[in-house]
Amino acid sequence: MTITTQAELAGMQRAGQVVAETLRTLQAAVRPGVTLAELDALAGAVFARYGAQSAPRMTYGAPVNVFISVNDDIVHGLPTTVPIRGGDVVSIDVTPYLDGFIADAAVTVAVPPASPVALRLIDCAEAAFGAAMRVARAGRPVNVIGQAVETEVRRRGFQVLRELTGHGVGRAIHEEPTVVAQPHNRQRLCEGLVIAVEPLISAGRSPLTRTRPDGWTIRTRDGGLAAHFGHTVMMTAGRPLILTA
User: Fold this and answer.
1) Which terminus of the chain has a smaller tally of CB atoms within 10 A, N or C?
2) Pairing state of beta strands 200-202 and 209-211?
3) Number of neighbours of residue 200 by Cβ within 10 angstroms
C-alpha cells in the first residue's frame, strides 16, 4: 500500500507494534526444550491482547499464528511439538492483521551453542537489511534494494534465495512491488510506499528451494542453513521509516 494519510500511518504503526512485541516475546522464549507449538501459542496470546489475528491464517488458511522455521527450513515452517535443541537456527516470521492493516517482520535466533557459520549467517542477514536501508529512497528504482542485499550477502560468502522475495504489504500480505535485484525492473519507489524488506539467505551452495510434504514449509534445496531477517518499512525521501521495530 501507499500511505497517504496520518490515519493510515497510525494504523500501520499499530500493526507494527504487534509485530515488535510478538518478536520480542518469542525471541526471549527460544531455548532448548521449548517446542515450536509453545512459541506459536505465545504469539497467539500477544495477538489476542491487541485484538489482532494471524494474517496467514485469514488469507491462506495457515494452521498457525506465526511461521517458525528451523535450520534448513527457510520460511512458512509449521510449529510442531518437536522441541528446540542446542545449536538450532530458529527463524520467526510474524504477520498480524489489525483493524484493516497488515505488517510483516522476521528475525532469526541462534540457540547456544551456535556454530560459527550460523552466527555469521544471521549477522549477514541483518547486515543485508541494513545495506538495503542505506539505498532505499523514494524516487529510486525498486531493484536497488535487491542489488544492495545481494552485494552484501555475496561479499560475506553466502547465497540469496532468489525464489523468495520482499514485497509490498499493508492491506494484504503480498502486494506490489516485488522486491528483487532484477536489472530490467525499473519500477520506482514512491514516498509513502510500504514494503517488507526481508533478506532470505543460505549458507549452502544452491540458491534453490523446495517445499516439504506438509505443503507449507519451504527449505533450502541442498540442506544449507537458512536465515531470515526483515521489517516492514515506509519509503521517504530520506532513510525509510521502520514500522515494525
Assistant:
1) C
2) unpaired
3) 30
DSSP state of 65: S
Q: Quick one: CA dihedral 111, 113, 119, 121, positive or negative?
A: negative
Secondary structure of residue 176 in the 3-state scheme: strand
- Three state DSSP letters for 77-129: CCCCCCECCCCCEEEEEECEEECCEECCEEEEEECCCCCHHHHHHHHHHHHHH
Q: Which CATH superfamily is domain 6-242 in?
A: Creatinase/methionine aminopeptidase superfamily (3.90.230.10)
| Strand ranges of the sheet holding 96-98, from the earlier edge strand across to the other edge | 53-54, 96-98, 101-102
Residue 182 has a pLDDT of 65
Distances (CA, A) of 237 to 42, 111, 218: 37, 38, 35
Q: Of 32-36, 128-132, 186-190, where does mean pLDDT reach its minimum?
A: 186-190
Give me the mean pLDDT over the 8-20 stretch.
Answer: 98
111 near 82, Cβ under 8 Å? no
List the chain domain ranges: 6-242
pTM for the whole thing?
Answer: 0.96
What does the pLDDT look like over 98-146, one tens digit per residue?
999 999 999 999 999 999 999 999 999 999 999 999 999 999 999 999 9
Which H or E element spans position 175? strand 175-179
CB-CB contact of 30 with 109 (8 Å)? yes
Q: How far apart are CA 107 and CA 42, in angstroms?
A: 16
Task: Give the gyration radius of the chain's Cα atoms.
Answer: 17
